[in-house]
Amino acid sequence: MADTRRLAVTTNAETFERLQESLARRDIDVVHVRPAERVLPVEESPFPDVDVGWVYPSRLMEGAVVDTHLGVPWVNGRDAVLTSRNKAGVLAALADAGLPVPATRAVSNPAEESAVEAAAEDVGWPVVVKPNSTTRGVGVAKAHDPDSVAGVTDYLDLVHDYRATGDRSYLLQAYLPEATDYRVMVLDGEYVGAVRRRLPEAAVAAGQWKHNVHRGAVAEGVDLDPELRRLAERAAEVLGIRLVGVDLLVTDERAVVSETNARPTVDDAEKYVDDFDDRLATVVRETAETR
Q1: Rounded to the nearest 10 degrees, how much is the dihedral formed by the CA atoms of 94, 100, 101, 106?
Q2: Is the dihedral angle over the CA atoms 205, 150, 88, 54 positive or is it negative?
């Protein structure tokens, strides 16, 4: 029997439960590591001994304390989380490597209204306005004209301060109304599963358009086309992230990488390749051995 390893996971949600169940059968104990009420002693560790961490904590200042106390390598470390969180940086890196991305303009907030309007005109109406560093569709809006985009950006100027990063920048991005939305999981450079995210018919009829699962969309496991698999693998390769969710928008004319997530949810086993859990266990063990 292999030596038992202890894996620290900093969120107690779907991924934690899924990993706890699957990895226990592979001699890996999954341990929940979270500050009590987000209060951390800095002089000594309040956490149990572990061998490896899953994903670096999303709150970077707090994460530095957690990281120091644990003193272990992470499957996805701080650099991976920071890389993926910067949507503009991701799209620039992918485009520079020749991968297709949506027409996008990065705006360093605040910016002159005339410059923002010109950028939106350049991208084309309607335009998607999205904060550069948020997840789960937080703060994403669709604007159809200069007045509406000005209203959205006025709101961002006044109140937007995403708590995890303090980043006030945002993107203006082309809206692809007929695109199919896929989340593709890539592990160690290889495709390991994909879901199609779609809205229920009633939600579409009500005018909803964002495909985030946390906003009511359904994620269905799919057998992805080989060309799309390769596109996701190339994105992971360019970014150098070991475990990453790659979001693809696919129309009849083309496929583009819209963003990535270095803190992807790991959910139902049927959404992944048959040996996905074995591969995860291997990655956890290999990471632990770098300590």
Answers
A1: 60
A2: negative
Would you mind telling me the total number of residues written for the chain in this entry? 291
State the Cα–Cα distance between residues 236 and 238, nearest whole angstrom.
6
**CA distance readout (Å), 208 to 6, 201, 202:** 42, 10, 9
pLDDT tens-digit map of 153-194? 766 665 555 454 556 677 889 999 889 999 999 999 999 999
Tell me how crowded residue 231 is: count the other CB atoms within 10 A of its CB.
Answer: 23
Which regions of 113-164 does DSSP assign to beta strands (E)? 127-131, 141-143
Tell me if 248 sits within 8 A of 182, measured CB to CB: yes
Closest CA to 238 of 98, 104, 106, 101: 98
- Using DSSP's 3-state secondary structure scheme, residue 100 falls into coil
Q: Which of 261, 252, 249, 222 is nearest to 100 (CA)?
A: 249
Pull the structure tokens for residue 29. 């104990």
What is the pLDDT confidence band of residue 13, given thresholds at 50, 70 and 90?
A: confident
Q: Find out whether 267 and 14 touch, Cβ atoms under 8 Å.
A: yes
The pTM assigned to this predicted structure is 0.88
CB neighbourhood size of 57 (10 A): 24
More confident residue, 61 or 217: 61
pLDDT of residue 1: 47
Rg, C-alpha atoms of the chain: 20
Q: Residue 60: exposed, middle, or buried by beta-carbon count in 10 A (0-12, 13-18, 19+)?
A: middle
Q: What are the chain's domains?
A: 5-76+283-288 (3.40.50.20), 103-174 (3.30.1490.20), 176-272 (3.30.470.20)
Place of tokens 């669709």: 142
